[in-house]
Input
Amino acid sequence: MRKLLIYMKEYKKECFIAPLFKLLEASFELIVPLVMASIIDQGIAVSDRPHIYRMGAVLVLLAFVGLVCAVSAQYFAARAAVGFAAKLRYALFSHIESLSFAEMDTVGTSTLITRMTSDINQVQSGVNMVLRLFLRSPFIVFGAMVMAFTVNVKAALVFVVAIPLLSAVVFGVMLVSIPLFKKVQGGLDTVLGHTRENLGGARVIRAFNKETSETEEFNRANGYLADMQMVVGRISTLMNPLTYIIINAATLLVIWIGGKEVYFGVITRGEVVALVNYMSQILVELVKLANLIILINKAVACGNRIEEIFEVQPSVQSKKTGAISRGDTSFAVEFSHVSMAYQGAGDDALTDIHFTVKKGQTVGIIGGTGSGKSSVVNLIPRFYDVSAGSVRVNGVDVRDYDLADLRRQIGVVMQKAVLFEGAVSENLRGGRPDATEDELWQAIETAQAADVIKSMAKRDGEEGKRPSLNAMIEQGGRNLSGGQKQRLTIARALVKDADILILDDSASALDFATDARLRAALKELSGEKTIFIVSQRTSSIQFADMIIVMDDGAAVGIGTHEELLSGCEVYREIYESQFKKEAREVQA
Output
């Protein structure tokens, strides 16, 4: 948590002023009982109305000055807390953006989102409350005791006994409650996890008629959470009755001792009232302090979780500028005996992959689910690092590139089509912000997405051969079908106009006719573009210049369609399962 305090550097002034104003407010609050004592003893007791009015004006003045101090303290505390949280959130987001796919896979997206949102909000609340109350509450507790001694030493001895007893009750309940609160939070996480899974997999649950079992599982988790909350609630509710018993007993003692002192003329009735007021202030501030400590514990725990993310360093580091060794530049991509393992995995995901691709060639990669197709293409833009061997792009090892320079040469369409909320044009310009509208339309037509744009424009009441690209895409492309999203993501990669284009199973949602038109359009692209097509359809890659057949992380066949049909059993099985079976059914 302490490492995060560097983001408070710009708010040193606010961190000093906010507690200062709170101490001023507390000082004025400690004066109020003495003013009340003066009103009772020198005003009401002798019917001195001018004195009552004067002291009443002093009370109003103290209230006004206290209000100004409280508002000022709140302003500076909020400014420091919000500014700190903003800088921390920006730094955390920048750090997450620097992490490679390997760290993303290990940490998990949901964990990163939690750290970015609720954890930072909890730390922000903790900073705000610390600046406001951490000095104020102890100051009033000990200040009230000191002021009580200035009134009457004998009556003030009650404070010496009451304050430790109150502290023991408040902090004892707090110490017992904090571990239970952690269990409650764990139970809440479980309930939220069940809720998220059930909402995300509602169709699967209904398809397999699992509503009853899922409801029972949710009820068990929800019941555990309710039971834990009841236990914590019962313990927490002990605080008020116990503290009020102590404070009322102490108040009775103060009144009893004070009454005897008044009878003997040692103190006045107003001073007894002042002592009772100081006792009430102590109770209120101790409860505030206990709640503050609970909040601080939560904030520190959240801060430690945030710090854990900062301590995760990206395994893929960008190469610093300097001399690089360049090999054969006639090859666009070279895999030299490459092996790769995911973090935490016992075995290699890829084993001894070796091939070269000339500039301008189209390469198809095919294989069963989990055979390593995506792992191969993810090594080209260096989303993951190899564990053995090397991958070269244009004759240079990808580890010798600056990451920005490397990825500038590569356009990637991921397996999962991802679009961002905003206009179509904003999405398409993701890799090249200065692209003209003509270039956008050229990419759209190549990606067979013109009908998608026209249907969106028609929905918005706009017609024409080339409607504007201002139609809005909802978050994650919710207003588009799977095939429409895939075509737009392909168009986005084409707008980038990179030398290497990777299509990672990006046409799986397209029908065969659209897929065929897309492949024909890709062949017509200008320049020596090297294209990698990952697919489970042999029809999508059979006309490629080179086909790589993956099986269990190894390249079991490399060649053309005809060569693989005659020499690769895995490829032949895939092809026959997709074509010969259909042919037999047609003949029958």
The longest strand covers residues 331-340. The two ends are 72 Å apart (CA to CA). The CA atoms of residues 14 and 79 lie 7 Å apart.
